[in-house]
Amino acid sequence: MRVVAGRLGGRTLRSPPAKSKEIRPTSDRARETLFSILGDVSDLSVLDLFCGTGALAIEAISRGADSAVLVDRSTALAKRNVTELGIANRCELVRADAIRYLERAEERFGLVFCDPPYRLADPLEPKLVQHLPPRLARYARLVVESPARRPLAIEAPKLELEAERRIGEALIKVYRRS
Question: 0.90 exceeded by the pTM?
């Protein structure tokens, strides 16, 4: 696994152990496709929920995002990656349940990644629909990755589906807040 592009492009990211069932990193190919949809992410503040390795936030920072908050129940792997890449000063690591973080957070972000473990996607959907939109700044984008066979739908006022791509077993949806 590597950073696909930007100033950190080509650098290696630490991956979870092969036997890990909790962390399923977004593939290099999926990140490449996603960022071609997103285009310029310069100067955005990023929220990476269920961050795992931190690959999505790291990719955004590499491509010019200003800062990132990475949230997961275990941030050890993400911490190792941002430290080894020398970007820890631009990343805040929050070891917490993603829904609890959203319930308490006050900051609004220009780009939000939401990639919950596939087995939790269905039960989390109502809470994500309720708590994600208030964290989006005006004209922000929300990226949701879920299993293609049972996709998450974050339907909310002022949130429009901008793009949708299937990559292997994953479905990536990009929403924009109006």
Answer: yes
